[in-house]
Amino acid sequence: MSSKEILSITAEILSTNRVLILGHIMPDGDDISSVASLYLGLKKLDKEVRCSIDYDIPSYYKEFPGVSAIENYESTCDYDPELIVVVDSSSPDRVGRFADKLKLFKTIVIDHHATNTMYGNLNWVDESSASCAQMIYILNNSMGVEYDRELALANYLGIATDTGFFKYSNTDYRVFQVASQLVKLGAEPHFVSTTILENKTLEQLQLLSTMINNIKVECDGQLVYSHLTYDDYVLHRCSEDASSGFVSELRSVKTAEAAVLFSEFPQGEIHVSMRSKRWLDVSAIAFTLGGGGHPRAAGCSFSGYNIEYVIDEVIPLLKSSLRDELKG
Ligand code: 5GP
Ligand code: MN
What we know:
- By secondary structure, the chain is of the alpha/beta class.
- The protein folds into 2 domains: 3-197, inorganic pyrophosphatase (n-terminal core); 202-327, Diaminopimelate Epimerase, Chain A, domain 1, CATH 3.10.310.
- 40% of the residues lie in helices and 18% in strands.
- It is built from 12 helices and 12 strands.
- Strands 3-2-1-4-5-6 form a 6-stranded parallel β-sheet.
């Protein structure tokens, strides 16, 4: 464990009063949980803390403690903190329009992506941690934060979602240790799993059916990919968060080593979600395309291209990586 970084970050935050916590664009459960749990922790320490994400937060996360405190870019862009803490974000562009603000204020980065570019004044990056929320648990404890039921629930959210509810390859004994502590402190696993996994609309299931109809395979079934156009989202009255988790369905195909979902939302913005099952490092491919992530889950985005063009650019890279790995 990087105890030196934790001690310096603890000392830095404890000696500061005005803190702004930032999460990333297209926020996922781990990001939202990390922002909310650090916010609730710093509130308990009587800090003048605010938190913000330059992106809409999917509505089902609003049932979690601390999430209603997350502000948008417009309400926080003029706020002058003494310190910014960025969570779960591997590069400055991930904070959206806040990127310029990072140059103006002392910045701490807490993250678990190996592709992190170390853009803070203090960086605690632990790629062996399954979630950033798990790092926030360690930090809150190091700062002497007392956990109550609300904070335990907010913190458990990211640990559950970034491990795919304790089934991804990043799930190790430390995940269960922290999760078990949080459940003891009052987090309810069943509330989290039903709120996140069993909260779909019928339109979302129809969008899933479109994605399944669009499936293509390459490399004898080792590469499974699909796409959803902006028109597909509009037809099913869905927005982009409706397809969160869909790429896992592609990876669930027996022969698949790699799975990719190309999704266009809003119009002209293409997000590429990549997953691998056992050995392909998709974060290396995402990184060469200007994105980042983890070896088994990574992504990148393209603006101003049509979806066919992006598919034709990305699929050959995956095919050649799969072939190189097999040859090597
Ligand atoms: P997803 O496919 O669910 O959007 O993202 C999978 C992983 O890749 C997450 O850890 C996410 O933070 C990361 N990721 C997704 N898109 C991007 C991107 O455009 N840039 C970077 N740096 N990371 C990304
Ligand atoms: Mn994460």
